[in-house]
Amino acid sequence: AIKKAVFLQQIKGVKTPDKRENINILLITDPGVGKTVILRKIAQLPGNNYVNMPTATANSLIGVMEKKQSILGENFVLKLGVIPRTLGTVCIDEFYLNKTEYQKVLEAFESDVVTITKGGIHAVIPVKCGYLCACNPRWGRFNPDVSVAEQINIPPNVLSRFDLIFPLRDVPDKEKDKEIANHIISVHRAYLDEKINKK
In which band, very low, low, confident or very high, does the pLDDT at 196 lie, cut at 50, 70 and 90? Predict the structure, then answer.
């Protein structure tokens, strides 16, 4: 179901006056299930972008007015963020923001525009992308007996903008984990010479 949803997100729908063309998806993942790999793979498709929030800011997502010195003097120049530059899907890894940053992002989610005001300039930039976001549960592992809202630090108004929310769980399985461990060891052993392998 998750692969199908992400696939359909890349195709997009048809925009009508009362319907959006994009699907917004949130992945809540246990550590080690490969969410970053998923997001980076999707981001490689033309028109898509990848952002890792611990190394980014809300301004890098939305955009900012920067002061630039030119022959005519000092002027403000609009520098667009990842969201308005993306025409396909923006993949946001580690989707953790503070309250102010969530408010900035919420406008893009709700209105399909971002507003940047500074230095007497008021810019309203259209947004045409969908969102594929991923985060870890608050307590380390996803608990199916607790509501999604309790397990992640995302405000309800932002959470409501996601059409689909999927938990990706790492369910412990002794036999399966043993098989994976043996496979990893075999792969590494294949690169060693015969004498080391024997030891």
Answer: low
